[in-house]
Write a structure and sequence with these properties.
This protein is an alpha+beta fold. It is built from three helices and 14 strands. It is rod-shaped and about 135 Å long.
Length: about 230
């Protein structure tokens, strides 16, 4: 008794059966039909992928080519592309991830399982974020005759002080608060120079200046200060 193949249901004559032309033609028709169907499907796939249709994609950097995830990661100086941040699972250090909510690319700083761009674990590396950081890298401002130059987290503040009384501490408000700072004070006066001792230190968003008078014959003094520090 004849048997059948699993997929195409081709007739498999038993060992004791005679050759049957009808069975041969039946099998040939099934094979030909399946071959035509496969050929049409392959031809359709070979037309190439589009946004609307799946298909074969050629990797590369030219127009109409698909960019590998690893190439995207290399553009940002990362080890690999990890997909969307919203996907559950471990996020690896030095991998880049896309946040569907902020529409930004982020570099992973610490291994974590976050599903959002936690600033403790991710830093934005997309073009807009990098541009914002570059635009804010350097700034200059002037408030109340106090000049402030900011380069990244390094700040230089400088200005004048007028008629500070000797031996008394005087505060000058500045539009910045230093984490650490070095301050230099230069008193200026006319007449007999005598001896002046200048001291200064940061106090929150103020600079406290004290000028000591050693037999100058003056009661007040003016001058300049410059503070260089980190914010």
């Amino acid at each position: 008794m004849s048997d059948y193949t699993k997929h195409l249901r081709l007739i498999k004559p038993a060992g004791n059966e005679y050759y049957n032309v009808d069975h041969f033609n039946h099998n040939a028709e099934l094979i030909d039909k399946e071959t035509e169907d496969l050929s049409n499907k392959v031809a359709k796939i070979q037309e190439g992928a589009t946004r609307e249709k799946a298909g074969i994609v050629q990797l590369g950097t030219g127009e109409g080519k698909a960019l590998e995830g690893i190439m995207l990661a290399r553009m940002f100086g990362c080890v690999g592309y990890g997909g969307d941040i919203q996907e559950t699972g471990v996020k690896d250090i030095n991998y880049i991830y896309y946040d569907r909510n902020t529409r930004k690319m982020y570099k992973c700083l610490n291994q974590n399982s976050d599903v959002s761009a936690n600033v403790a674990n991710f830093i934005p590396l997309d073009n807009n974020s990098l541009l914002d950081r570059l635009e804010n890298l350097f700034s200059f401002s002037n408030q109340n005759d106090i000049n402030v130059i900011k380069f990244s987290n390094i700040v230089i503040a400088f200005g004048n002080f007028k008629n500070i009384k000797f031996n008394e501490s005087t505060d000058i408000s500045i539009p910045i608060t230093f984490k650490s700072v070095s301050i230099s004070v230069t008193p200026h006066h006319t007449g007999t120079p005598g001896n002046l001792t200048a001291m200064a230190y940061a106090n929150g968003n103020k600079i406290t200046i004290r000028i000591n008078n050693h037999d100058t014959g003056l009661t007040t003094v003016s001058g300049t200060f410059i503070a260089i520090g980190i914010v």
